[in-house]
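Design request, tokens follow.
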């Protein structure tokens, strides 16, 4: 695998949710009337930095709210959690309380992270309150359709609620656990190759190691690994093809080096073909949902003309396929990616 040092130079704008996309979300039960909106959580008067157990700055802040406002927010956020996890059944939050609300100024979405705790056994969970952004929603939908992972989120107006995706942050895994002698490095490298291929085909960008997590599952006498994206902000916006290939981010060099060390060119191609086959079957199984999403997305403004032209030219060169030069939208580019995958698999 090639390595590189690709950079994202400009901040992506927030694209509002179109009326057509709202209809899609309503049909697929992704919308709801929320008791707390994103802007409600902005009404704090002060905040202090959140540090990790080693005293390092986490880039998150803990906001302080007036007591009467905090009580209202906590009651509303418990209902939000019930809506996210149990279609609004409040029984699941009878013994839970909101332990903390954190705010992040880093990145495009400026999310709030909410920690909710079960007072009976101290088991806790998180969920996120973010600005509703069309790019992010399309990314979540494509993750649901094409990846082996399920995603859970709801939208109301300008507010997006996302379920927490558990796992070891990719940068932390690379730094502390990747070379664990109990782990099979070939399995880790294989998973990165497949993840890289899926991101390239579905145009999920900016998958630096802190934007994905590693999930580890014991399996008989070995461990299974799965990389999961946790940030969908850069869904088909950028024009540089390398933004959609995790191998070209310097933060991911430990994964690329592992692949170069333990995989041959032949096995890399084999794992890419396995991922392509999986995407083909998902495209067929979810063809109706995929069609509905395509019909909405193709009319939505979610990138710039310059980025679209740059990307189609880059893909035409990468795949030696001049058909990309006819694409006028990011949606058409993904559609051609999927069609080419299907042709390759059944060839």
């Amino acid at each position: 695998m090639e390595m590189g040092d690709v950079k994202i130079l400009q901040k992506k704008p927030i694209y509002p949710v179109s009326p057509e996309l709202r209809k899609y979300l309503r049909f697929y039960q992704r919308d709801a009337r929320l008791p707390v909106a994103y802007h409600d959580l902005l009404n704090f008067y002060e905040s202090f930095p959140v540090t990790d157990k080693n005293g390092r700055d986490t880039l998150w802040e803990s906001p302080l709210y007036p007591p009467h406002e905090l009580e209202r927010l906590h009651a509303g956020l418990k209902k939000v959690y019930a809506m996210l996890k149990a279609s609004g059944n409040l029984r699941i939050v009878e013994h839970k309380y909101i332990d903390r609300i954190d705010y992040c100024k880093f990145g495009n979405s400026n999310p709030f992270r909410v920690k909710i705790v079960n007072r009976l056994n101290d088991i806790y969970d998180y969920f996120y309150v973010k600005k509703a952004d069309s790019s992010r929603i399309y990314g979540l939908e494509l993750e649901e359709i094409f990846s082996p992972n399920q995603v859970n989120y709801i939208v109301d107006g300008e507010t997006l609620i996302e379920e927490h995706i558990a796992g070891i942050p990719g940068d932390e895994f690379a730094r502390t656990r990747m070379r664990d002698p109990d782990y099979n490095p070939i399995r880790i490298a294989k998973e990165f190759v497949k993840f890289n291929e899926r991101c390239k085909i579905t145009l999920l960008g900016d998958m630096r190691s802190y934007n994905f997590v590693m999930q580890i599952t014991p399996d008989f006498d070995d461990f299974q690994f799965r990389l999961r994206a946790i940030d969908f902000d850069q869904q088909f916006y950028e024009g540089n093809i390398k933004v959609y290939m995790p191998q070209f981010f310097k933060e991911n060099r430990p994964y690329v080096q592992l692949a170069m060390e333990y995989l041959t060119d032949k096995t890399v191609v084999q794992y890419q073909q396995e991922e392509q086959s999986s995407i083909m079957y998902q495209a067929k199984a979810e063809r109706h949902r995929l069609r509905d999403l395509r019909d909405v997305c193709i009319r939505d403004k979610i990138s710039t003309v310059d980025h679209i032209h740059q990307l189609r030219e880059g893909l035409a060169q990468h795949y030696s396929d001049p058909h990309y030069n006819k694409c006028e939208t990011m949606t058409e580019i993904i559609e051609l990616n999927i069609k080419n995958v299907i042709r390759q698999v059944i060839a």
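Comment from the thread starter after seeing the answer: thanks! Residues 19-163 form one domain.
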